[in-house]
Amino acid sequence: MKLTFGFEWEIPILNTKFIPPKQEEIDDLIFDLRNSIKGSHTGFDFIRYFNAHVLEFRSGILRD
User: Fold this and answer.
1) What is the pTM of this model?
2) Sequence-ordered list of residues with C-beta below 8 angstroms from that of 47, at least 6 positions apart, any chain
3) 23-53 b/e with 16+ CB inside 10 Å = b?
4) pLDDT digit string, tens, across residues 2-25
């Protein structure tokens, strides 16, 4: 059995007025990030934790 690993990196997102943006305000950002990190198997979610907006990067299964 080979050892595998993965990671999650959660980043709070705020607009220029330090207010959490609406979903539609970051759709382009999410699209651009997905296209610029090709081959990394990284996924993105716009999720809410306790009234905070978080962009979540997930690596998927990594072997090296």
Assistant:
1) 0.55
2) 53, 54, 56
3) eeebeeeeeeeeeeeeeeebebebeeeeeeb
4) 899 988 888 888 888 888 787 777
